[in-house]
Design a protein that fits this description.
The protein is an alpha/beta fold. The protein is 33% helix and 20% strand. Helix 2 (67-83) crosses helix 4 (94-111) and helix 9 runs antiparallel to helix 16. The chain is elongated and about 80 Å long. The structure holds adenosine-5'-triphosphate and magnesium ion. Magnesium ion binds next to helix 10.
Length: 500
């Protein structure tokens, strides 16, 4: 094949340059230095030896790697690009292509007399393979399962979220051009393009991770890439209970709510765990139900067999062909759904979802961005108004109360932990106000001085007959519900049960 000293030269190596001038030593790394020298016209020039800077005296920059490392990498990388034919390389199996690159890079390192240890050489090899074949410096981050989010703010700064905490990683790109190339590679997989003329792009990695790119001139200080890593082992309610995101009794209440076909809105701030919660809440759904999901970027992983997944479509390069969430929700009403799940309600589709909830598609679910159940109600109101409906506010509120049964509020607390802070019922209207009733709340009691972890507890508010009691009775879940509610009650120091 190629990249071997004696191998076939046809591809993917570029043809050796005509030896009219002294050939670059790396143009054919398979040729020995003597061979290169004898091919050169007389008088034979010294074989070109671009000695790359040694790695040793490196002053580490703030990101952990030395400037010299990047200099060496750039030199070797450029030599590699001169040597190989990338289109031919792309035709190879990834493992074979990686092997070829490793061979050539090793030769370049030798020829260029780069002084580096075996370990450094390995690191460089890996790094360059990632650049040529994969997502460059992002590869090691993408390979880690413990990372929730990757946030790249230009070539120099990459932040990651691990265990709820956001930290600056050691990852760095050579420059913004390399970084943009990688962004381009990511979005081209879903047939999109990102550049100055279309500087905003959503995409998905092959593993399902959600990607957003925003480039200059909109991003003033350089391109920004945000990746919500796809969790292969999706979290289940048991795990949320184990992490303390919900109490055991709270978990049982959530399961019952799902089982008795309440209409549920999961509300929360950005990255608070809404999608995860929606996934968890879908677990108790019966296997024989026809579920239709509508999402901007398909993230939900429902386990039921009868699921139809729909995804919105952004406009094409001519600005045409948009399929909005509203189009999807309206269409799925014609698809005989038994449940509609909307990944995230952001706009006028709120009207269609509420209407679906109101007209026989109970047990539907959706998430929205809001910081409290009360705010979730006003968000729904304003989203409906955004759709240009000239309905009186009261009518909209009545529609909300008639449709939504439960609001589950998720939050990311200041210590990075994610909690379900409220399970709240939409009870009805009092005059012009939508009345809400908390069933379970998370109460913050303090903070551990050593770990900084927030200390708190989930407690019931003393409601023993929630509005969905009749439903629970109908589905035979009322005893379990009564038990879960009773065991969530917390007695205060006087022994009295506390309520809201
Ligand atoms: N209870 C939890 N405990 C620990 N990690 C969690 C919990 N819930 C969610 N996560 C993790 O937090 C990250 C964000 O979760 P998720 O995507 O569900 O949030 P989101 O609110 O839907 O975010 P966005 O607003 O960006 O859509 C994911 O990596 C997820 O695995
Ligand atoms: Mg989400």
């Amino acid at each position: 094949m190629f990249g071997k000293r004696t191998g076939d030269q046809s591809a993917p190596r570029k043809p050796a340059p005509a030896p009219a001038t002294a050939p670059k030593a790396v143009a054919r790394p398979d040729a020995s230095e003597e061979q290169v020298a004898t091919k050169a016209p007389s008088p034979a020039p010294e074989p070109v030896r671009e000695t790359a800077p040694p790695m040793e005296p490196a002053a580490n920059n703030s990101n952990g790697r030395s400037e010299d490392y990047y200099d060496v990498k750039t030199t070797v990388f450029n030599a590699l690009i001169d040597t190989i034919d990338l289109t031919q390389l792309a035709k190879l199996e990834p493992a074979a292509a990686r092997e070829e690159i490793r061979d050539i890079v090793s030769e370049i390192i030798q020829i260029k007399n780069v002084v580096m240890s075996i370990a450094e050489q390995e690191e460089l090899l890996e790094d360059i393979c990632n650049d040529v074949l994969g997502y460059g410096p992002l590869e090691p981050l993408l390979a880690r399962d413990d990372i929730a989010d990757i946030m790249v703010n230009g070539a120099e700064r990459t932040f990651i979220e691990v265990d709820g905490k956001v930290t600056l990683s050691k990852i760095r790109f050579a420059d913004n051009a390399q970084f943009m190339n990688i962004c381009q590679r990511i979005v081209s997989q879903v047939g999109r393009r990102v550049d100055e003329s279309s500087p905003i792009c959503d995409a998905r990695l092959p593993d399902g991770s959600r990607v957003n790119v925003i480039a200059p001139p909109l991003a003033i200080d350089g391109p920004c890439l945000t990746i919500r890593k796809f969790k292969k082992d999706r979290l289940k309610l048991q795990q949320l209970e184990k992490f303390g995101s919900i109490s055991p009794a709270g978990r049982r209440i959530l399961e019952i709510i799902g089982r008795v076909r309440c209409n549920i809105v999961v509300s929360g701030g950005t990255g608070s765990g809404k999608t995860t919660l929606l996934n968890c809440m879908s677990a108790p759904i019966d296997q024989d139900e026809r579920i239709i999901t509508c999402e901007d970027s398909a993230e939900l992983q429902l386990q039921q067999p009868h699921v139809v997944r729909l995804e919105t479509r952004p406009p094409n390069l001519e600005g045409e062909g948009t399929i909005t969430m509203r189009d999807l929700v309206k269409n799925c009403l014609r698809m005989r759904p038994e449940r509609i799940i909307v990944g995230e309600v952001r706009g006028p589709e709120a009207f269609d979802l509420l209407q679906a909830m109101n007209t026989g598609h109970d047990a539907s679910m959706g998430t929205l961005h809001a910081n409290s159940p009360r705010e979730a109600i006003s968000r729904m109101e304003s989203m409906i108004m955004m759709g240009g409906y000239t309905l009186p506010t009261n009518t909209i509120r009545e529609m909300i109360t008639g449709s939504v049964d439960i609001i589950v509020q998720a939050a990311r607390l200041r210590d990075g932990s994610r909690k379900i802070t409220h399970i709240t019922e939409v009870v009805g209207m009092e005059e012009e106000v939508v009345t809400l009733q908390n069933i379970l709340v998370y109460e913050i009691l303090g903070q551990d001085e050593n770990t900084g972890k927030i200390i708190g507890r989930h407690r019931s508010t003393g409601i023993s007959r929630p509005r969905f009691w009749d439903r629970a009775e109908y589905y035979g879940e009322h005893h379990a519900l009564a038990e879960a509610l009773a065991s969530s009650e917390v007695a205060d120091s006087d022994g009295a049960v506390m309520g809201d």
